[in-house]
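step=encode ok
step=design start
structure_in=
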């Protein structure tokens, strides 16, 4: 099931394209919205999110299941950012075309803990 959530806590289950457009249009600087797929027999987290940044750009991120598959891009185009969200929500395979995506998965990796000594008994 597709779920849309915004910074103000507004949640829409199975949002239509018009509902997604309205949530996107209501974003103010510093606010975000997230589209996520839940309960679709997929392991991990599957979502796309957009942050309307203070410099009037849109930061898009998506995750395909696992932290290692977490990507980010920035665009000044409101139209491209909104269309990407709609296309992802509709399951269109080429929704991320037209952007340069950076893999930021390392930011979400679990920290490596090294043992320095054996525990004393």
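sequence_out=
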């Amino acid at each position: 099931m597709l779920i849309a959530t915004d910074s103000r806590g507004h949640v829409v289950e199975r949002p239509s394209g018009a509902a997604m457009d309205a949530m996107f249009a209501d974003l103010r600087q510093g606010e975000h919205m997230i589209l996520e797929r839940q309960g679709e027999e997929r392991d991990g987290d599957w979502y796309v999110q957009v942050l309307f940044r203070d410099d009037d750009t849109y930061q898009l991120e998506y995750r395909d299941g696992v932290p290692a598959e977490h990507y980010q891009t920035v665009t000044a185009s409101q139209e491209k950012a909104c269309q990407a969200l709609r296309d992802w929500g509709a399951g269109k395979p080429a929704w991320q075309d037209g952007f340069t995506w950076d893999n930021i998965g390392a930011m979400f990796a679990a920290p490596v803990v090294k043992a320095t000594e054996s525990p004393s008994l």
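step=design ok
step=annotate ok -> The chain is about 15% helix and 30% strand.
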